[in-house]
Amino acid sequence: MPAALIQHPFMSQSALAECNAEAMVQAMLAFELALAEAQEARGAVPEQMSAQMRHLLEGHRFDIDAIAAGIASGGNAAIPFVKQARAALPAELKRYFHQGATSQDVVDSALMLLLKPRLAALDALLRRCRAAAMALMEAHDETVMVGRTLMQQALPITFGVKVAHWAIGLEQARRRLAGVELPVQFGGAVGVHSGLEEPGRDDRGLDYMDALAERLGLSAPVLPWHTDRQPVHALGTALDAVAGAAEKLALDVALLTQTEVGEVAEPSAPGMGESSSMPHKRNPVRCALIRGAARQVHGHATVLLNAAAQPLERGLGEWHAEWAPLVDSALLLEGALEQAAVLLEGLEVHPEAMQRNLAATGGGIMAEPVAKLLAPTLGPDAAKRISAEAAETARLQGVAYAAALNVHPEVQGRLDPEEVARVTDPSLYLGSSRVQVARAAEWLMTS
């Protein structure tokens, strides 16, 4: 697979460098060493043996290619990894390595460890997006623009309130992701810590599980979750929620950058947005990268959702199908948010284009308040018809909507021209736009 050309460009390059096969091996090793230490602390491993394991294995060079080749026969990376680790240990230590654990304990816990720094990076990027969005909100809380529904001009809003909705979406998703727990996995062969019980007590396995969580900096689950995939489901859907919020931002910006609209532009950079054949083009490439990554995250989320119900005490293919989508989702999302942060921090806003587009219909965008003004005198049906007729006249003849309205035969002499001018001013028909920006800013600053 030409991943470097068709997959990796959508991902965070720094995350790719940190989240590789070597990192997965080190995460599996961290689990095993923490397990040995937890067991030694409770007398199940002789003193100093966990330290000897750490000394021998932390500097050991694992054969990653051999581990990868071994997955074909065992079905997961833990089996060949454990074989290599034991082979590197002297006879007196071998029996204490991987004691009471099963392959799923190793892989699931390693994945949680692998993803922990990625979630921290995602949170930092989302906070960066929030700060940039709040600056835009403050700068443009009175910048009037066209509000569009079904891709058509509707009524005026402010650019500040548009940005506020982007910011709220991203922040809601950030808080949801921040609330997701990454639990350790430790249950043994069938999830009940078989063989670890001692005379007079059968809670030793759960004790080890809790100690493992503390040592690894992961959360302690209520029970081992081998086929209870709620942790993965929660994480996958939270990642997808962030992807959806980022995609909304990118879609809106891309639409507003269209040549005929031109209300915003992506930050300029040498070569950014260039075409292979058309020198004049400035394509919204950052938006394309965000949306491309988000679409892939959406697809990965469906795999995770479809794998949520797993059979009996160990998944048969469902568990295996989770690994790549889970990690890829985090890497793709980190790449998307890197682009989103740059996009928001350097977004070029063109209020003059917004004013031009407000006048594109001659002011017919204000037909709704005009109809409200006419209704008490002419009745609602006639008011709606007349306001629409004046809007069409303004569009076809290229005159101001107020002028077209003033010369309409059914309106002449009925309205004060100053009142018509007021009611057709987009800046005076913004509803709660400004207070929405203020309310959004207050909420965004609460965390």
UniProtKB/TrEMBL annotation:
Belongs to the class-II fumarase/aspartase family. InterPro entries: AdenyloSucc_lyase_C (IPR019468), Fumarase/histidase_N (IPR024083), Fumarate_lyase_fam (IPR000362), Fumarate_lyase_N (IPR022761), L-Aspartase-like (IPR008948). Keywords: Isomerase. Its EC number is 5.5.1.2. GO terms for molecular function: 3-carboxy-cis,cis-muconate cycloisomerase activity; lyase activity. Residues 362-441 form the Adenylosuccinate lyase C-terminal domain. SUPFAM superfamilies: L-aspartase-like. It comes from Halomonas campaniensis. The keyword Isomerase applies. This is 3-carboxy-cis,cis-muconate cycloisomerase. It comes from the Bacteria.
